[in-house]
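Exercise 7. Given the encoded structure of a 276-residue chain, write a plausible sequence.
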């Protein structure tokens, strides 16, 4: 298993500033990090300084996230993400949909977003969340399949998989290449009363909860999925720990889970052509 290709999601170290986050992720063994667009815009660092920081630690940025209503078209946050892709480098965007739109009305805007992203060499992963307006793997695939863009796919987060009631048989009919990225985490034995609150505050490290994480990973492997892997753990408990410790715990849990499942975290390439 090539654990060195694991990525540290933006939300695993969500309260760390950018230099702290990069140093902690690199020190733990992560090859990459994820960023929210606000992490970039609030860093108070030039693009050159960010680039130097990443180079110094041997880390690249796999993904960027921003929860905006992309049905409305371009906005300043999107412009910032594509600027980051051109100047610093990423692989893909993770995009959910929290605004209320009928599913068919998402197809054309998702295709348009993919087209704009393609101009910058960026992939787009549509993320289903059981508390959003695209709640299941099947609903996300309906939009992605109908939009039919070569750079459009699905972001598969294991918390959302478990809490949406997804099953391995739901992968039938979805090409393995349509899974843009995989995000590792785990769930409590019983769902909380507020899924949004639980998802953002009480996730568990991968392999340390009640989800059949190994079974899902093996089902994805057997389906032919070979997507970059992040560890994404929104956790108030993890937030109380120093960034270096939180990153170490996340990396060790992710690496052990992959090893137990017999799954490899593959390398990936950024928009600047740099391999990881």
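Solution.
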């Amino acid at each position: 298993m090539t654990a060195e290709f694991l990525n540290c999601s933006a939300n695993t170290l969500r309260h760390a500033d950018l230099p702290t986050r990069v140093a902690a992720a690199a020190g733990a063994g992560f090859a990459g990090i994820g960023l929210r667009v606000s992490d970039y815009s609030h860093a108070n660092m030039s693009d050159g300084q960010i680039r130097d920081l990443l180079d110094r630690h041997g880390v690249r940025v796999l993904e960027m996230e921003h929860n905006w209503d992309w049905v409305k078209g371009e906005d300043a946050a999107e412009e910032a993400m594509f600027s980051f892709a051109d100047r610093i480098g990423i692989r893909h965007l993770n995009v959910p949909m929290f605004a209320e739109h009928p599913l068919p009305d998402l197809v054309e805007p998702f295709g348009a977003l993919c087209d704009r992203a393609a101009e910058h060499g960026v992939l787009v992963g549509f993320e289903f969340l059981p508390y959003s307006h695209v709640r299941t793997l099947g609903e996300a695939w309906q939009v992605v399949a109908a939009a039919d863009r070569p750079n459009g796919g699905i972001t598969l987060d294991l918390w959302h998989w478990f809490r949406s009631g997804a099953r391995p048989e739901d992968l039938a009919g979805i090409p393995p290449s349509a899974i843009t990225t995989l995000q590792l985490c785990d769930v409590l034995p019983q769902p909380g009363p507020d899924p949004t609150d639980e998802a953002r505050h009480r996730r568990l490290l991968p392999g340390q909860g009640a989800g059949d994480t190994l079974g899902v990973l093996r089902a994805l492997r057997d389906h032919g999925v070979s997507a970059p892997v992040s560890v994404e753990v929104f956790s108030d408990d993890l937030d109380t720990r120093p960034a270096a410790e939180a990153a170490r715990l996340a990396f060790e849990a992710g690496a052990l889970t992959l090893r137990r499942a017999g799954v490899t975290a593959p390398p990936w390439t950024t928009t600047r052509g740099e391999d990881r």
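Remark. The longest helix spans residues 243-261. Students should compare their own answers with the one above.
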